[in-house]
């Protein structure tokens, strides 16, 4: 049924569940499993009146990529422990939903698997829900996992 599965992974508890589900589906359907990760800058800010300023220097592109690789390496290792190989890993600090959707098209995914929550309720309220945006924008089947 599924030949190519794209797992959107951020390292959260829901993403861990999504990884297990995606690995199980990849085994059942003998499908290729691809991984996408979008590390996001989490720098503290100070608010004074109507102005917000970062307290620290934002991380460099290399630091963001290194942090992303650390998260994806854990997912690749976990998948191997479940006897599934991740075919490709895609990392970008772009806006998560559009990057996930573009990666789904690039890999020819016929299923996108992602956790229902990553950042938590406050992050979803402030930034919008990635899982909702992916589900609405996808041209293929989506599975959100709790």
Produce the secondary structure layout.
Layout lengths: L3 E5 L4 H17 L2 E6 L7 E4 L2 E4 L6 H21 L4 E6 L4 H12 L3 E5 L5 H7 L2 H8 L3 E5 L1
Parallel strand pairs: 1-2, 1-6, 2-5, 6-7
Antiparallel strand pairs: 3-4
What does this molecule look like?
- The chain is α/β, with parallel strands linked by helices and 146 residues long.
- Helices cover 45% and strands 24% of the residues.
- It contains five helices and seven strands; from the N terminus they run βαβββαβαβααβ.
- α1 (13-29) links the parallel β1 (4-8) and β2.
- α3 (96-107) packs across α5.
- The longest helix has 21 residues, at 61-81.
- The model is unreliable at 119-127 (pLDDT under 50).
Describe the structure using short key phrases:
146 residues; two-stranded antiparallel ribbon; 5 helices
Brief characterization of the structure:
The protein is built from five helices and seven strands; from the N terminus they run βαβββαβαβααβ.
Radius of gyration: 16 Å
Main β-sheet description: 5 strands, parallel
Relative helix content? 40-55%
Structural class: alpha/beta
- Strand percentage lies at 15-25%
- Spatial order of the strands forming the largest sheet: 5-2-1-6-7
Note the gap between the termini: 23 Å
The parts where pLDDT drops under 50 for at least 5 residues are 119-127
Count every beta strand, where a strand is a DSSP E run of 2 or more residues.
7
Give the overall silhouette.
globular
């Amino acid at each position: 049924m599924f030949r190519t599965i794209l797992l959107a992974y951020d390292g959260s508890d829901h993403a861990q569940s999504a990884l297990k589900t995606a690995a199980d589906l990849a085994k059942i359907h003998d499908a290729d499993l691809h991984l996408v990760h979008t590390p996001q800058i989490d720098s503290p800010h100070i608010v004074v009146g109507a102005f917000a300023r970062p307290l620290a220097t934002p991380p460099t592109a290399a630091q963001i990529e290194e942090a992303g690789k650390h998260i994806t390496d854990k997912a690749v290792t976990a998948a191997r422990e479940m006897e599934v190989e991740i075919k490709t890993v895609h990392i970008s600090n772009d806006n998560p939903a559009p990057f996930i959707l573009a990666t789904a098209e690039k890999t020819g995914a016929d299923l996108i698997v992602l956790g229902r929550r990553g950042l938590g309720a406050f992050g979803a309220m402030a930034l919008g829900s990635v899982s909702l945006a992916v589900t609405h924008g996808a041209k293929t089947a989506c599975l959100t996992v709790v």
